Amino acid sequence: MAVIAPSRRIRRTPFSDGVEAAGVKGYTVYNHMLLPTVFESVEADYRHLKTDVQVWDVACERQVELRGPDAARLMQILTPRDLRGMLPGQCFYVPIVDETGGMLNDPVAVKLSDDRYWISIADSDLLFWVKGIAYGYRLDVLIDEPDVSPLAIQGPKADDLAARIFGDAVRDVKFFRFGMFSFEGYDMVVARSGYSKQGGFEIYVPDSAVAMPLWDALFKAGGDLNVRAGGPNLIERIEGGLLSYGNDMTLENTPHECGLGRFCSTETAIGCIGRDALLRVAKEGPVRQIRPLSIEGDLPPCDRLWKVYGDGEKVGQVTSAAWSPDFETNVAIGMVRMTHWKPGTVLEVETPDGMRKATVEAKFWI
Ligand code: THG
Questions:
Q1: Could you read off the pLDDT of 86-139 as tens digits, one per residue?
Q2: Pocket test residue of 54, 65, 120 for ligand 1, highest count of atoms within 8 A of CB
Q3: CA separation (Å) from 158 to 69, 204, 225, 240, 366?
C-alpha cells in the first residue's frame, strides 16, 4: 500500500509522539489533522475497547471558539436545536445546516459561560462558515481555533482510569456535562462524552504543552487496567449508530434524513439558519432516512457509496459497513427510501465484489 506524503497541510497533533510510540498502524485525515484508526487491528481494538479502557487522540475534533457579547446569539443562529435551556457546564449535540437545510456539520457544542462556547466540529471546515455568518450579521464576537485538543478515555474502565488522574469527583460528571479538573496546574474541561457507546470522558486539553505529560500520566496510571491507545472504532460506532459526517451524511442531507430531527426544534429555534427549509421537511417528514442494515457475505472495505436495490430499483445507499464479531453479521449504515425502510425489508447491496443480500433492521445494535 502506498503512503501519504507527510506535510504541513496534514497536521500532526500534540499527542502524535505518544501515538507513534504506542505503535499506530493506520490513520485517517480529519479536519486536516491525523486521526489514528488502527493500533493492533480493527477487530482486536474493538474487543479491547469493549473490555478495558482506551486513550484516544481525538485532537482532530477541533474547537471553533465563540467569545464575546454575541456568542450565544451566534450559536443559536448556527443551529436549529433550541439552546434556550442550555446552561454553562452542558454539552449539546447540534446539527448545523445551511439555508436549504443541508447538513454542514454535526458537532458537539460546549457552553463554557454565557459569552463563551466551543463548537467541537466533525470533518468539515466550519470555521469559515461561522466567521462568514458572524461577519454578515455584524456580530460582536471573536471566532478562532484555540490550542485545545480533545483526548478521549473510552471503555468500561474509563471511570477508574479518569479517577486516578482527576480524583473521584470525576465519577459524578453526568452524560454530556462537564466539570473543570486540574492536572499539573492546568485547568481543563472534562466531559462525559465521546464517540463510542462504551462510556467515558473527553478531556479538552487546553495547551499543547500539557498534552504529552497527560498522555504519559494516563498510561502510567492505567497499567493494571490494561489501558491501551485506541481510536474511534468502525465496528463499534456502526453497532452504536454513531454517524460520520462526510460518510453517512453530507450537504445533500437534512437532519431529519439523518435521524437527527430530535435535535431540531425548528418551531422555537427562531432566527436560526435553515429554519424555513426545515419547517417544511419537519412537517412533511423525510422521504429517505438513515437505517441500520445487516448485510450477508464477505465485504470489502466501504470506501465509496454502495447502491442499494429493492424490487429492481435503486432505493438507497450504504455508506459504512463492517463485520461485527459480537452480532455475527456485517453491520451497516444506509440511507433508504421510504418505500423500502420498514424493518425486515430485504434489499440488495451493490459492492465492488458483487451483489449482497441485506435486511433493514429495527434498531442499531447497541
Ligand atoms: N466528541 C466531541 N467532538 C466531536 C465528536 C465527539 N466532534 C466530531 C464528531 N464527534 C461529531 N459527531 C458526533 C456524533 C455523535 C455524538 C457526538 C458527536 C454522540 N452521540 C450520542 C448518541 O448518538 O448516542 C449522544 C447524543 C445525545 O444524546 O446528545 O455522542 O464524539 N467532543
A1: 999 999 999 999 999 999 999 999 999 999 999 999 999 999 999 999 999 999
A2: 120
A3: 37, 16, 9, 18, 18
Domains of the chain, with CATH numbers?
A: 16-56+147-238 (3.30.1360.120), 63-144 (3.30.70.1400), 289-366 (2.40.30.110)
C-alpha distances in angstroms, 240 versus 86, 108, 207, 230, 295? 26, 17, 31, 17, 16
pLDDT in tens, 194-236: 999 999 999 999 999 999 999 999 999 999 999 999 999 999 9
Residue 196 alpha carbon to ligand 1 centre in Å: 8
- Specify the residue with its C-alpha closest to ligand 1, atom 8: 122
Residue owning the nearest CA to atom 22 of ligand 1: 242
Give me ligand 1 centre to Cα 314, in Å.
Answer: 30
Q: Give 227's DSSP letter.
A: -
Q: Distance between CA atoms of 67 and 65, rounded to whole angstroms?
A: 6
Q: Cα of 136 to ligand 1 centre, how many Å?
A: 29
Mutate to test the pocket of ligand 1, among 93, 117, 125, 204 (most ligand atoms within 8 A of CB): 93
Q: Which residues, in sequence order, are bridge partners of residue 64? A: 119
Is residue 181 within 8 Å of residue 89, measured between CB atoms? no
Whole-number Å distance, alpha carbon 20 to ligand 1 midpoint, is 26
